[in-house]
C-alpha cells in the first residue's frame, strides 16, 4: 500500500542519515559518536587488497589521518545503505555496504578497488520480503561508478539484497 511504501522510504532516509553521521564522526575523529552509531559486535567483511583495509584500521585507531572517507554517492535499499567514494591521492576506490537496524549499524562490507553491482532478489515492502522470487529476474538496482578511477582492471562482485 501507499502507506507501507511511505514508511519504507522514511526508514531508508533515516538509515542513510545514520551512515552519513558515521562518516562525519569518522572525519572529525569523534570516537564517542562512532561508538553510539556502531554496535559493539560489528560484523565486518572485506574484499580487496589487504593493505587497503582502511575502514577497519580507522575503526581500530591504526590508519593514517590522511586517509578520509568522503562519500561521493550514498543510496539506501531498506536496511542496506551503500556508500561509495575514491581517494585520488592513493588511487583507491571504496564501497561500503552498511546494514542499519533501529538506528544502529550492525554490519559493514568494505570493497576496495572492486566494482560492485547490487541486485534485488524478491520484493520487499515495509521490511517484509514477499514469497514470490522470480529466479530468472534479479534486477540490478545500483552499480559502482568510481572503481575505474583506480586506473587498472578491478574485480567485479554482485551483492544480492
UniProtKB/TrEMBL annotation:
InterPro entries: NTF2-like_dom_sf, Wun1-like. SUPFAM superfamilies: NTF2-like. It comes from the Eukaryota. Gene3D superfamilies: 3.10.450.50. This is Wound-induced protein 1.
